[in-house]
Design brief:
By secondary structure, the protein is α+β, with helices and mostly antiparallel strands. It has 9 helices and 42 strands. Helix 4 (426-443) packs across helix 9 (555-575) and helix 6 (500-513) packs antiparallel against helix 9 (555-575).
């Protein structure tokens, strides 16, 4: 009798638990699953760090995806509970209908997709694929696909492979129509909530709609035909015939997705988004940022290094200088009595000081000082307002010629350094930056040494030994930063005993890149502490910040850093 009672109680409990689990996971068939990649991860009551912790989950546990907002994923817990986890501490597994199991080919949707030797980021790289490449799919495991292209065979993330054909739909419109996104909007591989999520658009973004069907709109996203809900598109305010001013330069967006802000800085508030291939008139340019009309009647600023101009700016002329000002970029900038370094110093200016421009003499601006006096300042150490072309600094090679410089690309080999939110390996990026600087210095006649030329592991002691053996005039260690808070960004430079080299390099790179200035700081790092030569260690941006990762991996940024390092080093060698 007792056994019969216990069995009845157990059956009731089982039905309750089963019902609650079903209630908690209504979207598992559509949205797929996530596997937790961090130990003792906080589950919060809402999509952000400001929400309270409601539970904790552990590494390796698997949960259904209920919803996603930005970088946060809502997951189903047991007993009907739910909560939010940070996406960067999870590994997504698409729902079973995200990839057509009968498909034998797929299309790469990422600009540079890493191919690995096994199904996970812990496996070594076997190669990479470009956007639009066709691959043969051999097998699938979780969120990874085994593919083959020519002689390359390996594993890639399912998230960046588009497979199968879209469902039968009404005949698409051949003419593209522009629309404005009215709310945060998910982008999917097919016109259905079960379509794989490939990205998102922010409110205010302008998109070109290729076709519409059954409440869905087809657009180009990351160079691939993708789908968004038509419910969140506004066609009423579309630009039918967007007039352009022929006298202003035109430019095409080169980044997959590019943020538009209310000011020309990464500090600016996000107001919209534009996509690769869209063309705009540049209304104004300042400090490598461009002002565009991203939406009819609405203007904003975007990073100029992600635009390809179809019409070059006219060179600086006296007429173009009318009504403009220059802003000083460094403390202690000399203002001279004549246009040239031979002129006597009549005043010193600090970072942020602005002056009215009177005229241009060669590469020097004549500016108006207080009391009706005038002076001259070198064009390459100031920022000019408006859209005129900035003056480039004359070759500083005279100061680097025959100098011994050791460049130290951080990490290498089995030490990958930090890994960015998009999979960027610090060891690869530091080597790329170092090689650009190496070539620049070699061409100027400097005697340059690298602690590594390839993806090899080099101990810290060996790096310092190279500096000592070569009796280096300067030792420059190149790194990129990372932190748990994905909002942190900017550049920091470290020194151990003497800050002079670090200060010159830091200020020059900040002037070139306009990255957030996190200052020059004391750092108790081995390559600085044990180094008898003049040394500096640079953290050139945060790979943990998704926006900054896109910036620092761009060719434009890499070149700007190399230029800044070269000019800062030349200034240091000249002064010290």
């Amino acid at each position: 009798m007792l056994n019969n009672k216990m069995a009845a109680i157990f059956l009731c409990l089982l039905l309750i638990v089963t019902g609650s689990i079903q209630k908690a996971w209504p979207a598992e068939a559509n949205n797929g699953f996530v596997t937790i990649t961090a130990s003792n991860l906080n589950v919060r009551g809402g999509p952000g760090l400001s929400y309270s912790v409601v539970s904790k989950v552990n590494k390796g546990e698997k949960y259904p995806i209920l919803k996603q907002e930005g970088d946060w994923i809502k997951i189903g817990l047991s007993a009907g509970r739910e909560g939010w986890v940070a996406e960067w501490f999870t590994s997504k597994e698409a729902a079973s209908n995200d990839v057509n199991p009968s498909a034998t080919t797929g299309i790469v949707t990422a600009d540079s997709l890493r191919v690995r030797t096994g199904p996970g980021t812990s496996y070594s790289l076997a190669g990479s694929l470009g956007n639009g490449q066709t691959v043969t799919i051999i097998e699938a495991t979780g969120s990874w696909l085994k593919i083959k292209v020519a002689s390359l065979e390996g594993w890639v993330s399912k998230e960046y492979i588009r497979t199968g054909a879209s469902p039968t739909m009404s005949q698409p419109k051949t003419q593209q129509t522009e629309a404005v996104v009215t709310s945060g909007l998910n982008v999917r591989t097919s016109p259905s909530l079960s379509g794989q999520l490939v990205g998102s658009l922010v409110k205010g973004s302008r998109v070109a709609v290729i076709s519409q069907s059954n409440g869905w709109a087809q657009i180009q996203f990351n160079g691939t035909n993708s789908w968004v809900s038509s419910e969140y598109l506004d066609f009423a305010n579309q630009s039918q015939n967007n007039p352009t001013n022929a006298s202003l330069p035109q430019a095409t967006v080169t980044a997959s997705t590019l943020s538009v802000r209310d000011s020309g800085s990464l500090n600016g508030k996000l107001v919209g988004q534009v996509l690769k291939g869209q063309k705009f008139t540049i209304l104004e340019e300042s400090n490598k940022w461009v002002k565009i009309e991203y939406q009819t009647g609405k203007t904003g600023w975007a990073a100029g290094w992600f635009f390809e101009k179809s019409q070059n700016y006219a060179p600086v002329s006296q007429n173009s200088l009318k009504g403009q000002t220059i802003t000083v970029l460094s403390n202690g900038t000399n203002i001279r009595s004549e246009a040239g370094v031979h002129g006597s110093v009549v005043q010193r200016a600090n970072n942020g000081d602005s002056f009215e421009v009177i005229d241009l003499s060669g590469e020097w601006y004549e500016i108006r000082l207080k009391g009706g006096k005038t002076g001259y300042v070198a064009g390459w150490i100031v920022s000019l307002s408006g859209s005129s072309q900035q003056i480039a600094k004359p070759d500083a090679g005279v100061h680097t010629k025959n100098k011994k410089i050791v460049i130290d690309p951080g990490h290498g080999g089995n030490d990958s350094g930090t890994i960015g939110t998009r999979g960027t390996l610090e060891k690869e990026l530091t080597l790329s930056t170092a090689k650009l600087l190496y070539n620049r210095l070699k061409s100027s006649g400097a005697d340059v040494y690298m602690t590594r030329f390839s993806d090899t592991y080099v101990s810290l002691a060996s790096r310092v030994a190279t500096s000592h053996q070569q009796n280096a005039d300067a030792f420059i260690s190149i790194h990129y930063d990372s932190i748990e808070d994905r909002n942190v960004r900017g550049m920091t430079t470290y020194y151990y005993s003497n800050p002079n080299l670090a200060k010159e390099l830091h200020s020059s790179i900040i002037n070139k890149t306009k990255l957030k200035n996190r200052d020059v700081r004391y750092g108790n790092y081995y390559v600085l502490r044990e180094n008898r030569q003049n040394s500096a260690l640079l953290e050139l941006g945060y790979l943990s910040n998704p926006t900054e990762e896109i910036l620092v991996t761009s060719k434009q940024y890499q070149r700007a850093v190399a230029d800044g390092l070269f000019e800062g080093l030349a200034r240091y060698l000249k002064t010290f």
